[in-house]
Amino acid sequence: MLPVIIWDLACALANQQTTPAQESSTIRMDVNLVLVHAAVTNSAGQFVPGLTKQDFQLFIDGVSRPITVFERDDAAVAAGILVDNSASMIQKGSEVISAALAFARASNQQDEMFVVHFSDHIRLGLADDKPFTGSISELESALANFRAAGATALYDAVALGIHHLQQTKMERKILLIISDGGDNSSRVRFSDVVKLATRNGVIIYCVGIYDDADRDRSPRVLTQFANLSGGRAFFPAELKDVTDTCVKIARDIRQQYTVGFAGPADGEYHGIRVAVLAPGHENLTVQSRAGYFAPKP
């Protein structure tokens, strides 16, 4: 029954505008404030610390806009760990569980987390009365509910994760997907899930653990989820590298900058580009979400 309910809610979310409160911080007074989280790396892929507001440039629909908020704190996040439970994962479950726990341990101790298991069905890992937890032991129990069988409803799982994040008061919302295949049994469409993520400011990180023989492998889908939402996609060469990858993602999340600006309330989609021009730094790359939906007037 739960997947049907979540499906209906996800469809409703995909067809409505985000409210100002969903687009802005819960502790700020400006209801039209738009926050953009940006990761800055150098040519070696290393994060660049110590940048200032003056080093950043913000463009909305190609037009330069003043930055009214700038932060570089290790702020807590709400994070969902989405674990592929399809039949092809049967030999990978223990490694994936260990990697997910390593992600949790490397994250901010104030983070709120939850688990979604997905095969051809989707289900939450925590108890019904506990939407989030910061307890490693509770997350370990939730991840231990891993049961490999069936097909892959990846899009449905992401839609459920996005909907579940609406219960948090955290400003930053993250999904971590660990999967070895493309979607082959969801009812929700890829385009609807991307729209949900964009409307609700959810950043998606992906870890693809594909075998060369996998017929359902679809790195393009995971890459698009990450790029369009402002996250990153990783494809470790070996299963044993998944843990290190998840730890890297946790550290990436903790080293992001936040820039904010006063946006219009016109109900339209607006493109976002963040650039960095910092003295002493060359060939910097900025990863942030591609755009946002403004609230209706």
Radius of gyration equals 18 Å
What's the overall average pLDDT, rounded? 88
- Briefly note the CATH topology name of the largest domain: Rossmann fold
Strand content: 25-35%
Shape: globular
CATH homology superfamily name of the largest domain: von Willebrand factor, type A domain
The CATH class assignment of the largest domain is Alpha Beta
End-to-end gap: 36 Å
- Content-based structural category: alpha/beta
- The count of strands amounts to 14
Helix content: 25-40%
Brief descriptors of the model:
297 residues; alpha/beta; Rossmann fold; 6-stranded mixed sheet; 4-stranded antiparallel sheet; 28% helix; globular
Walkthrough of the structure:
- The chain is an alpha/beta fold and 297 residues long.
- It folds into two domains: 2-10 and 75-253, Rossmann fold; 32-73 and 256-293.
- Helix content is 28%, strand content 25%.
- It has eight helices and 14 strands.
- The strands form three sheets. Strands 7-6-5-8-9-10 form a six-stranded mixed β-sheet, with helices on both faces. A four-stranded antiparallel β-sheet has the order 4-11-1-13, with no helix packed on it. A four-stranded antiparallel β-sheet has the order 3-2-12-14, with no helix packed on it.
- Strand 6 and strand 7 form a beta hairpin.
- Helix 3 runs parallel beside helix 8 (242-253), helix 5 runs parallel beside helix 6 (190-200) and helix 6 (190-200) packs parallel to helix 7.
- It is globular, with a radius of gyration of 18 Å.
- The model is unreliable at 16-29 (pLDDT under 50).
